[in-house]
Amino acid sequence: MVWERRVLPLGTHTQPGPGYFPLLLAILLIIFGGILIARGGLTRAFRSLSWSEAPHAIAILACSVLATLFMERIGYRITMIIILGFLFGVLERIRLWQALTLTLGLALGSFWLFDSLLRVPLPRGGWGF
Amino acid sequence: MEATFSNLVLGFSTVFNPANIFYALVGCLIGTMVGVLPGVGPLAGISMLLPTTFGLNPTSAIILLAGIYYGAMYGGSTTSILMRIPGEAASVITCIDGYAMAQKGRAGPALAIAAIGSYISGTLSVVGLMFLAPPLAKFALGFGPPEYFSLLFCGLIVLSYMTGGSIVKNLAMIVLGLMFGMIGIDQMTGYFRFSYGLVALGDGIGIVPVAVGLFGISEILATAGQSEKREVLKPRLRDLLPSKQEFKDSVGPIGRGTILGFLIGIIPGSAHIISTFVSYAMERRLSKHPERFGKGAIEGVAGPESANNAASEGALVPMLALGVPTGPIPAVLLAALMVHGINPGPLFIKEQPVIFWGLIASMYVGNMVLLLLNLPMVGLFVNFLRVPYRILYPTILMFCVVGVYAVNSSLVDVGIMSVMGVIGYLLRKFDFETAPIVLGVVLAPIIEFSFRQALAMSNGDYMIFIQRPISAVFLVVALVMILLGLKPLIWKKKDWRERLTEAEKSS
Q1: Would the pLDDT of B324 be above 70?
Q2: Contact at 8 Å (CB) between B42 and B35?
Q3: Which domain holds residue B444?
């Protein structure tokens, strides 16, 4: 923050510029960070943390990133079919017919609910779907 | 007094049209479901459903969102009593005696007392809100930039103290939230700050992607893939009505919980959570048979559930009267009002009487709806609990993506949500509270604006914050809170906040 703020004018005490408040915040965060590092020995060890859910978390995060990158290109419905299909069918290994029903029902149903019924525009992708 | 009643009549005339009653009903129903389902808290619920209100007029929108808010507070008790899993954080304490009652075959009376207590406290708190918010707003009209800065500063310090856990960690989270709030165009000079050429960041980071990421996505990341052995105790609805003795035992705790919850609700921080713990401790101390607590004492359900609901409505007082949210949920409600072109603050009640009094009236209606809805439909809500989490979380993820995207039709927001999800997940791992970040993001533009205006007024003299009496009072309160928060660092003794955090984790 301190480094990035350098392009913003600091101003004066009388007329604080756009960089004034961010610099104050950065200094405060450095102070709090310093206190936390100094007291780090009193907290539980990093090794004691369990990361058993991490593989699932990474897969879910990848789905979220996929939506961010491709939803406007391939459309909401196709994106959701891919994401839900992957989560239900591959990650959670739900029975095929259940996974298919849930994927199509939720992807198409949510599009109908938001886009058609509530008039919240959702992306349609290059080929209008 | 007369003016209040004539305004209330105006509010009821606003609410009593079929559309608004329908939205109050739908809000309460969705809210109850949000409260019932573990993993979908009221904050993520309101944030995800915010876009569904875009097509509504502001009054209907806020009625719907407020319905979700207090509906979630009601619904949270169901999972606590039937499964020993709190539907939302404020129901943690209800798990203890509520579940013990359910194991003894008294799930029905526990649910009934939770609903009745919530109804009474909710309704009485609306009375408090109705009488307290307008004079508070009038008082705040005299605030200048120094007072506003000190009020917000004090609010953030109180929040960091009341949130529980380490005050240093909470302060760091507030600062982090304020830093996120710095992104975007500077309102005073028009400079682009920390936006790295992304035009979409010009308006800053939205509250919805931050809230959904920190509370919705991080929850999914942290809990997906875990084993899900859930035992749902089936309530015997035949025995829903509490006995005469149970009613008698609940009257005092409901009354005390209401007053306590409302007062704590006004204070920034995790008010509704704290109020339940304080209420439980108070009831146990006042009881002639404290040994019954933990083994199915109805007072252990009645008090905290009433306090929880009263606090959630008390929290609306500063939000509506001052435009200052006291926690992440009021912050999202505030953002929702802003989306609809309304700026809450001291002038809100005066300038938007239809919305304010409509909201008040809708709360009376909503509390009645929830009482009538929760008990007969408890069997239906229990069925939601039987949906396996491996089916539930992809559905929640889908709603998170739609909800966040729909606010601005922006994929940048979906990206921010993902980043916030990871940040929230890691912060939870390291025992950091994420609620202060949300509040920091919301308050950052106002606090910075007030700070810079105050310095401009005083020619750069920081003494202006101390020389103005109201501002000085806020700063003294903030200083006291900092000193209280630092006490355990010096004496190395656990204070009530650390014990509260441990109790929350162990439940």
Answers
A1: yes
A2: yes
A3: 2-139+147-506
